[in-house]
Write a structure and sequence with these properties.
three-stranded antiparallel beta sheet, 2 domains, alpha+beta, 157 residues, Arc Repressor Mutant, subunit A
């Protein structure tokens, strides 16, 4: 298992957080429902922000924090488009592809490599005829996480 500064379980998913100094660099969904006490005050603050965002009683529509993204220039452009999708709305892979003058498949591949799902809302990108995939999965627990995230925003598939 990778070295996570914090691991926590919510009603959406079990989440692992990785940092590079003061920057969040990875948010991963973990198969095993487990916890790991936050290694730093920063990790605890980020964990708390994510937990509040995922808890519907707080009615938060975004998470603001310091992050550092790695990836190609194209992936960076796709991720920038995802951040622009308003809470409670979706866009198709084709919608994003038209903006960037590329293919829906290329957009999907960039979404699959999103290091900060939830923070960068790739769950808001859907197929033209259905929910599409999530984190490279077309079924199973990862797709169920996408459904739960969308349902939290009032979007049912």
């Amino acid at each position: 298992m990778e070295n996570y500064a914090s691991i926590f379980t919510t009603d959406i998913a079990t989440i692992g957080l990785q940092f590079d100094g003061r920057y969040l660099i990875k948010l991963a969904y973990l198969a095993e429902k487990t916890t790991k006490k936050s290694e730093s005050g920063l990790a605890e603050r980020v964990k708390n922000k994510i937990e509040k965002y995922l808890d519907a009683k707080y009615k938060l529509t975004k998470i603001t924090l310091d992050s550092r993204l790695k990836g190609s220039a194209f992936q960076q452009k796709v991720l920038q488009q995802l951040v622009l999708i308003p809470y409670g709305e979706t866009r198709t892979y084709g919608d994003i592809a038209k903006i960037l003058k590329t293919s829906p498949r290329a957009v999907g591949n960039a979404c699959r490599r999103n290091p900060l799902p939830i923070i960068i809302p790739c769950h808001r990108v859907v197929a033209a005829n259905g929910i599409g995939g999530y984190d490279g999965a077309k079924s199973g627990e990862l797709l169920a996480i996408k459904q739960r995230l969308l349902a939290r925003e009032g979007i049912i598939f």
